[in-house]
Amino acid sequence: MELSDSSTRILAGLLEARTGQQLTMNRRWRLETALSGLLRERGIATIDELITILVMGREPGLANQVVEALLNNETYFFRDRSPFDLLARHALPLLRQARAKEKRVRIWSAGCSTGQEVYSMAMLFAEEQASWAGWTVDILGTDVSQQAIDRAREGVYSQFEVQRGLAITQTIKWFAEQGSQWRAADSLRKSLRFQTHNILEGPPHPGGFDIILCRNVLLYLSPETRRKAFDRLSSALVSDGWLMLGAGETVIGQTDKLLSDKNARGLYVHAANSGQAERRAGRG
Fold first, then answer.
1. Residue 102 carries which DSSP code?
2. Local confidence band at 284 (pLDDT 50, 70, 90 cut-offs)
3. Which residue among 142, 185, 257, 274 is buried most deeply as judged by most CB within 10 Å?
């Protein structure tokens, strides 16, 4: 079925208005697939008919359902494993030194989708439990998708989902089998919080975060919106904290507030405090 240009423009405008994300050309091919379930559920024959209902405003909640269907919730445990190894090997030991007095660490996973990234962070700390004894580890996962956040908060994953990124030993250690699914252990869940939030809004927590993960979210934003997102992220990152982006993302040419950590390529620090990061790493 050929989708009209006007319907495509309306869907693209709705997605960008609600989330800041652009419906790029390489995402438009999947519009029919993404919306097929909603069409069946609503008994709507075509996307053009769906657009007519949206424009007429006959069903106020339909726009939210359309946006949910269009969002890309692709994620998996320890995605692109090396950045997590870098956090464990470089950032977390330095944080343990820097926060030795207050014994508190705050981490934000922005655009966390269905939560695998957040649980991956929890496992990093849990695997080094003795080193973090007596610490308060607060890990917040946020996403614009309410459906994704509901799933993340539930912490229940299919066999296919746990196999993506987790070794069998990790699955057995940190998840309990429930029929054909796996539920995250309470020992992981106790340090986690989830809420709906758009990174283009103000920081979701006062006081700032020691580590922010924002991976494969900025790819979908326009250059102008991406600069705004970097402003929000840098304002939420404490002066000696780290930002981790996706494998295909960078701060180069996007913002002058952040730059690559010379001691940990793949992590980003405040430009104004890059020298501090070098000195701290030297002490480590």
1. T
2. very low
3. 142
- Render pLDDT for 158-204 as a digit per residue (tens, 0 to 9): 999 999 999 999 999 999 999 899 999 998 988 899 999 999 988 88
DSSP calls for 156-172:
EEEHHHHHTT--HHHHH
| Beta-ladder partners of 158 | 181
- State mean pLDDT over 261-271: 90
Do 47 and 7 meet the contact criterion of CB atoms below 8 Å apart? yes
Domain regions of the chain by residue span: 5-70, 82-283
Closest CA to 108 of 255, 206, 247: 206
The rounded Cα 16 to chain-centroid distance in angstroms is 18
Contact 95, 211 (CB under 8 A): yes
What does pTM read for this prediction?
0.89
Strands (DSSP E) found in the chain: 104-110, 136-143, 156-158, 175-178, 181-184, 192-196, 209-214, 237-245, 258-260, 267-270
- How crowded is residue 178: how many other Cβ atoms within 10 Å of its Cβ? 9
CATH number corresponding to 82-283: 3.40.50.150
CA contacts within 13 A on the Cβ side of 83? 24
192 torsion bin: left (phi>0), alpha (psi -120 to 50), beta (else): beta
Tokens of 217: 């979210």
pLDDT at 1 over 60: no
Mean pLDDT of 108-128: 96
Sequence letter at residue 53: I
- CA separation for the pair 9, 14 (Å, rounded): 9
- Is residue 77 within 8 Å of residue 121, measured between CB atoms? no
